[in-house]
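note to self: the first set is below, dont mix up w the second
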Amino acid sequence: MERAVGQVPYGRNDIFRYAKMSSQTMENMKSNIECSEEFPLSSSYEMAMEALSSLITRQKRGDRSSVGGKYGKLDRMLMYLKILGLEEKIAGLKIIHVAGTKGKGSTCAFCEAILRECGFRTGLFISPHLIDVRERIRLDGDLLMKRIIGRRPEFRGLYILDTEVSKSVAYSGVVTLFELHCRLDSYLDISEEKFLMHFWNCWNQLKVMQKEKVTNDLPMPPFFQFLTILAFKIFTCEEVDVAIIEVGLGGKNDSTNVIKEPVVCGIASLGMDHTETLGDTLGKIASHKAGIFNFHFQVLLNWADFFPLLLKHQIPAFTVPQLSEAMDVLQQRASELEVPLEVAAPLDHKQLKGLKLSLFGDHQFINAGLSVSLCKCWLQSTGNWEKPLKNANQEGDMMEAFLRGLSTARLSGRAQIVYDTPLKSYNVSEVTESSFGELIFYLDGAHSPESMDACARWFSNAVKGSRNSPSSSCVKVENRVCNQR
């Protein structure tokens, strides 16, 4: 098969070169996909999970990719997107793209909650998941949960306390709050019906590709690549107003970096992690993260002399304060691409007007500051700045929608406190301090020196706080996040 260089945005030719199949081959393939009935839509979620599990490569951390072929990861990603007809549709998404070592997941969760509270239909892609793979893909956050719970008889009597994002339930039976919390969290993400519909649509088309043997060098995508493709499929089909995309690993060569024109990019805290892949110095790691910086040219016609004009359009970027070794690399790369890079100041607790961040830990003020800068830039760049300002009391105040988002964002399994108790009550007013069991779960997935330090500080403060806190008249299960994904 002949290899040709596709049309790509200026400044990223080193990243976006990929082999194009011949137009006749692609058209024949699309025709076969549209007419194929060999892969009927399955209603079995278990079957979908089995299919998805078959894409796990089981390679050890640091090993070279076991996916063969002559194409690189991003080459393959672009070819998959073309097969699924998503290449042009992704260009229509208004994306916030976030990389980083620690805090990028928290930043994305804050952004999603803020813009949802501003009245926009949101899509969020993050990783990893804890219990259900659908945790990685969210549509409209809590709004989806509220719609689903209304149709689920097993969750009758559910109460949601917005100020603390706490959940208590009058459940017809015996269930621990830990079990209930895990079950409820799965209903905050994309519904099973929508997930299956989009999953099998992507799966079947890519399987047809394999059956037709269009190329032996394009196997089924590995696990994370498939989920990235699926997220793009869902967000384009569901017509979200904004898609918040978390980088999986690194930035430059990450599967999400097929995004050619995000609205704004963000870099969370950088540290030493995945050194076997990204490099053994902070500068090398920062170079990979800066790979999401981008710009593109717009072609305008000068009708006076019929001469085309190229206007360079920079994609704005923000970073949290970094160590000098990392910051120097970020600024150098931004300067090379003429990308406007700003440092987002940590959020001042006074700006919250007495509210608390829903994600726990002092480091979350850094992530919250980045998310505020990203959301403000997104609103301004998309011409939507006036929408949330309608409810602002005065200029300079944190907008009410921003405050609601910062105080209700959720990200499970990071610096999370779960009280375990058998809850037999049928009325939330009957749930008192005496209802608590003796177990308190402190959950976190810290796995690097920086995140372990943040986790230890959170745990110490949480234990001290629980000993000094007054008696509570309501069960509280709070989502808290440590400074990692």
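second set (the one i keep forgetting abt)
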Amino acid sequence: MIQTYHEDIIHDLAFNYYGNRFATVSSDCMLKIFTKVDQKWKKDVEHKCHDGPIWRIRWAHPKFGQLLATCSHDKCVRVWEEKKITEEDNDKKLISRSEISERVSILETKEGVADIQFGPKQHGLQLAIAYVDGKLQIYTIHEQNQYVKTCEIYASQFGLRCISWNTSPVEQPMIAAGSFDYQNRFRFNQKNSFTQQNLGQSQQLEQQSTLIIIMKNMAQIESQQSLSIIKKMDQHITVNDVAWANQNGRSFHLLACADQKGFKCWKFQIKGQQVDILSLIQIKQDFEGPACRLSWNILANYIAVSFENKVRTFKLKNDQMVCTFEYIETQQIEDYNK
């Protein structure tokens, strides 16, 4: 393990595109970036980014430079740019250091931000923002610190928790969005509190899908109404995380979601604006418990799943997920200053 010297809980960690750097964010309002040098992790950047706990950190594709996005309890989303600065030290030797500066700040809602995700590189520098009141927005980031909101949709009346882009270069932009369920819904105002629902309506709401697929219609690219829900998955409990695997030339897609009972993985095809479910992949595991986070490898044949005190990796083989590795949390910590 690596000692980051954050002063409070670390809420998120993200690796860059090449896997040789990672960034962490914490309740101490700090962003820290580490680089692997000689098989050890060295801290490059430490910067206060928000006025409240930071929930998420995301890297943009390196095609757009060293850009990161953060979202916080202060309800603000910020995009940061890292630059290398060369200067002379006391011995007049040239040294290089990293400096981070704010490029964009987005604050357009009274509700909190649940998740952020940069879009695939083929669609330009786009940033999707999911809010706890159920709203999903997509912004295009331009040069000279400019940004434009291109579209938005109220995706869930229960409130969103997580999102994941479809990275396929041959299909229209699509996002999978996971939400709270009826029992754990986000109560953001009296109109949407559901306190006046009768029993029949409550039962109907409990059966609403908490995992949906949203498509952006490129023919209506200039319209903010270009987003539409094209599929509601068979998922009815709160989704903690969602991960859309790289297609890698396959004829089908893989979409995994983490919930209170573990995780699921769907295999499906997309034909125009229609989603055809092929199967729910069988997962072989010896327990049932809440799963927190998911991450596919680049080939989409392995997935890492974090639980409360362990991390497991599963291999996809013959439409089955088989556990291949398990890591149990320990107290061993590596000091990156050594």
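remember for set 2: The chain has a mean pLDDT of 86.
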